[in-house]
Amino acid sequence: MVRTDEFPLPPMRFIRAALRRTTERIARELDVPQEQAPDWSDFEWRVAMAVAAMHGVSALLANRLRWQGSEVWQAFLSEQLQQGLLRQARTRQLLAEIDTAARQAQLPLLALKGSALLKLDLYAPGERPQSDIDLLCREQDFEAAGRLIQPLGYEAGLMSWKHLEYLPAGIGKERAFGEHIGNPVKIELHSRIIERLPLREVAITDQLFPQAASAGLNPYPSLAALMRHLLLHAAGNMCPQGIRLIHLHDIAALATRMQGSDWEELLQPAAGWMLPPLVMVDRYFPGRIPAQHLARTASCCSPHLRWASRHYRIAEHSLSRLNIPRFPCVEWSSSLAEACACAALRIYPGRKAAALNATLALSTHALAATGWAELPRWKKALRVLAGNAPRVATMYSIQRAMSYRPGTSSPANSASMRAAV
To answer: Which of 197, 241, 377, 401 is least surrounded by Cβ atoms within 10 Å, i.e. has the fewest?
Structure first.
């Protein structure tokens, strides 16, 4: 039996059931808060803390819930709201510094996703977490934008197919559980906005960057452009079953601001990849997405993806799913050939992609801290195909929740994390 600092973990089937139960309840609370607290065991309250942290909704729950949970649950939510306020203040300051530097350098930048939502005041202060600042620049300005970021105390990190990551210089490897002012705020620099669904690349850069962008940080050209990006980002996370509740809540909250003309702009043209995130938002936040727009999007979605999306549940298509899915992207394929290629790449993505994935794993704190990133790929593949490989990031969050003590949400020792998980 795996032990944590506080509690012995039960068998995997109990962890799986607790993840499913707490995730679905938390999702319902975000839409219609209930009057009665759930009847959860001490273990389930800890799992609920892990779920809230993984889905980025801890501070949101602190402001929305009408009931009192366990003592440690209440302390955790209160602390997360306080930490959210501190991190939001830091993010606003960093955005102001980036804006000033970009104006001085005469560089136009687009502040993406969370930064744009922050300007719209869709959330109360501190409610929405933001672990990174995403910036979009023109391709010809990519190197100049990097030179602009580094004097802010950042150094270039990993270059992936989506962006170049910048981390605060000299930052350590340890991370606190959930939101914490001690955790770094990354900057991710994009020259294009693209997702692979699962093999087809969907690019929307031209629809996002303002044609008459001025020097400094620019907003999206319209609410429809912001919504299109949120939907594509959600689709990119749904495809490998990694969607977060905060992603769905963002879309639901922005939808309430959109008028008929905004929806018309968004759906010109409509795209099939928009349907799964819209359907899931409609399931957990009913009434936010007009029915006629759902029907219009469904009409251009492939039949198998349209059927599959009707059965999507947040507990099974997010990190709340305990086991690593074998072939999570198959239903997103546009043909049998693409589905087979997707399955083959799942087993072995090729030497170059495998090397990039290994580097990404080592740069992801939860994976690196538990030793998963250091395993040979063939061992990982065997565990996944056997169906008995738990998601390391999920187990890591559960372990951190089990060892959490109020007022001590500080970076933990990597050796203890590796041994426990």
So the answer is: 377
pTM of the model: 0.88
Please write the tens of the pLDDT for every residue from 83-115. Answer: 999 999 999 999 999 999 999 999 999 999 999
Let me know: does 410 contact 83? Beta carbons within 8 Å.
no
Residue 116: inside a domain? yes
In which domain, by residue range, is 181 found? 88-221
Total structural domains within the chain: 1
Cis peptide before 108 (omega within 30 of 0): no
Residue 317 lies in a domain: no
> What does the pLDDT read at residue 177?
95
Tokens coding 157: 């990190």
For residue 66, is it within any domain? no
Question: In CATH, what number is assigned to the domain containing residue 211?
Answer: 3.30.460
pLDDT band at 328 (very low <50, low <70, confident <90, very high): confident
pLDDT band per the 50, 70, 90 thresholds, residue 128: very high
Task: Summarize pLDDT for 378-392 with one digit per residue, the tens.
Answer: 455 555 555 567 899
